[in-house]
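step 3/5: co-fold with manganese (II) ion
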Amino acid sequence: MISVTGKKIEKYKGDLLVYCAMERKEKIPFCDERIKSLIKPACKSGDFNAKTGETLLLHTALLGHSQRKGIAAARVLIVGIGKQKQSVDEIREQLRCAGGTVASSATQSKVREVLVVLPDLAGISAADCAEAMSEGLLLGNYSFTKYKKQKENGATPVHSFLLTGSGAPSSLRRGMKAGRIAAEAACKARDMANEPGNVWTPEKFVQYARTISRKYQLKCRVINKPTMKKLGMGGILAVNQGSAIPPKLVILEHISNKKNPTLMLVGKGLTFDSGGISIKPAAGMEAMKYDMCGGAAAITAMQAVGEEQPQHVNVIALIPATDNMSGGAALKPGDIITHFNGKTSEVINTDAEGRLILADALAYGIKTYKPDAVVDLATLTGAVITGLGHHKTGLLANNDVLVKRIVSAGERTGEPFWRLPLGPEYSKQIESKVADIKNVGGRAAGTITAAAYLQEFVGETPWAHCDIAGTAWDFTEKSYVPKGPSGIATRSLISLIRNWKPLKK
Ligand code: BES
Ligand code: MN
Ligand code: ZN
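step 4/5: write tokens
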């Protein structure tokens, strides 16, 4: 829970009052006048320099009479935000990190409620400041303890965050709401990913889509196996062949106005990837329950769309969902399948399954909705981890304007993207002797040949593919990103949608 309060800081009698402090070269950190004298001794001794992630916790009861003046809270926490930053995007990240640090410090202190005083920083508006801080607080406060009977050392997440600051309350409220919506969506994506493969089945994507469609007036459609057969979605059906659980194609629609531009999202909802007959090694295979993170990003971005009901854009999300198993009827290496658009594909490796389910969803979605632009999200290749590590999402696209927008959205949200090339040289690697294409292109350029496969299904439609295999979990260590699933791409998508305008070619 998070809210803006009009309450006077000196009247706040809660457990924890938080201020930010900015690091300065050979000087006392920059901070609110009210706490200058409080932090001075710790700064002079070098105990506190206001570096990123540094904290100073003071118990009011231990302060002298004059220092205690104007503080009614039981404790004061001062959070370092590091050096002064130039760009607004860097300041946003600085504030998200501060929020994450506050959440974990408060959890450690077993504090239920926190009042955060937003800092007055040059180069960022009050609304943006409230937005970034709210994101950091809520993302940093995340935990997944559903399956733990014994909660660790009684530490529970913070129940409620209060925000105050010198900006107009209406601006703070507006910023906070934007931050809350994005953070809640990303936390929901983390929840979905944390659920094990025996719980988070394709049916769960259906249920969640139905829930948000009712709550927020989105249109929900579900394509079941019999209809997939009629439509000829040979990719999704092939991947599902070895499974005991039926596949689903989940579709959510937000149509604000038929004349508006339409953005289409497609997310890989592979609820467990065993590799199929081309089975994966046992070590680490449990992480393949996270292979649905692209689907989670798309559906949770729609949750935010539902809540915000943007009137400048139509947004459609498609989530092809199945697991990839090796049952008796499973797809085999050498099998030839036919995709929704009629293209045939020779399956060399059943572990390259993501592209098979995405191909049908892309072709079907583009034919049905004629979107102005398409963005897909998928934990598609291990190769992207080799190339970019766990720090940046791989981005491949047929449209430079779309790339610019996604890169900017990533900069605003602290979710970096890095473009990789496409081209006929790479497409040649997936030529097959017996079918139109084959599903792997050899060891070289694995991330690019996977995208080249998808490219066969988007035609001329402006399209971008985000390979989140390196960032969907084990993402760069940050105070507001827990170990495990990161909820990556949800906030970038939300930012992309909020700033959407027609694509001029
Ligand atoms: N879901 C995996 C990709 C993956 C691997 C994500 C490791 C995160 C961590 C995908 O379905 C896959 O198995 N890709 C293969 C493709 C290969 C067979 C061409 C891969 O990357 O090894
Ligand atoms: Mn696979
Ligand atoms: Zn996979």
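step 5/5: annotate
Residues 270, 273, 291, 353-354 surround zinc ion (ligand 3) (CB under 6 Å).
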